[in-house]
Amino acid sequence: MDPDGPRSFLRPRRVNQKACFTVADAGQLMLKLQALDETLRLTPFEDHPKLDLESIDVASGTYVIGSEDLFQVVKGISCAGLIPDVYIEAYRTMLQRRPYLNHFRKSDINKGYDPTFSEVRRILADIDALCGTELYGYIQKLDRDVKPFAFLRLPAELRLQVYSHLLPREAHIALLYTPHRNHQLSRLNLDILRVSHQLYDECVKYFYENRTLWMMAGRDQTGTLTDEYVGRAYETLAVMNTQTRLLFKRLEIMVQVWLLPPANIPASRRHYGIPPVSEPMRQIFALLPNLETVLFSFNPVKNSMFERGMPRVYRMREDILLWVLDSMPEPAPRIQWDISRSSPFWNDEHERVLRPKLEERTGMEMGESVLSRLGCLK
Which PANTHER family does its entry note (predicted)? Predict the structure, then answer.
């Protein structure tokens, strides 16, 4: 079986370099926040819903004392100049006794994503201390009147039913490649992840827990692709949240070899923020400390390769197997095998040599692979 190529990712359009947020911008931000605070403070609370907060304007082009300090507080926020707008939108929502929403959008494609109110809220107290405002106090006052999100009052079992409809999940999740080209992945709507931290945590746990992490250890005739495939899988895994990786307890490794160079090889790098490592397979196990089971499966080999190519295929499989086993931590996870679709043994002679090596190290406990479960190849 030739694997599918790497999953296609939408390439972000090339945009101009993000406009820098400067100390002068921080000064204008301070003036806007102070004007917003003054408007709220001078207006009776019952009249706040009637205020046209968006029309508040301030003079520009003047130096503002304290702007350097404010710059240090907000510089980690994308598009910090939008903080007043984000605050106003959340404040209006909470005035209606409804929870605020974290919107994921770009007001200006050249400046990156708008800040969410959760990001702004984390630094509101520091902003108040520098600007002499009470913006955080207004939010705290409204917090007491906002009605709890009704969905969170449902029993956990019912919430899980909702997650299963919004985020349909399979028994496996694949790194880089799908196990079979004819198996179509479900499209997911991730909007629910932006509702609240509690819903985000519950959805992530539901989506990743009790799933088999599937990867391929691929190799060509020269042996050079082993590190390439596993290295790309390592990068993909390394960018995951640490808590998410802790949810994986089962790993399946499909051993894939080619007598000719494959049509689709992994990109040289996928995540440039992740430094390359010299032993990617060993590092993958280090990233998955809660692994309990590792299952080995094998790609079915085309009949046309049988006569002349099979001895070489099985030697390469043996090399990959021993390489992966040598990379495992001590004590090693439980090892299982699925040889129902393709065996690691070529003939009786090869089995007499290889099987004792494997039985001595891992035993030969049988398990069910992703391909067997899907029934993709019959």
Answer: F-BOX DOMAIN-CONTAINING PROTEIN
Both tokens assigned to 223: 């042996």
DSSP reduced 3-state for 306: helix
What digits encode the pLDDT tens for the residues 121-170? 999 999 999 999 999 999 999 988 888 788 888 998 999 999 988 888 88
Which has the closest alpha carbon to 281: 220, 335, 229?
229
The helix, strand and coil proportions of the chain, stated in percent and rounded to the nearest 5, come to 50, 10, 45
Backbone angles phi, psi at 203, to 5 degrees: -65, -40
On whether both 184 and 138 belong to a single domain, the answer is: no
**Which of these three, 120, 147, 174, is where a domain ends?**
147
Whether the CB-CB separation of 138 and 91 falls below 8 Å is answered with yes
**Eight-class DSSP state of 209:** T
Any domain includes 32: yes
Determine, yes or no, domain membership for 93: yes
Q: What does DSSP assign to residue 36?
A: H
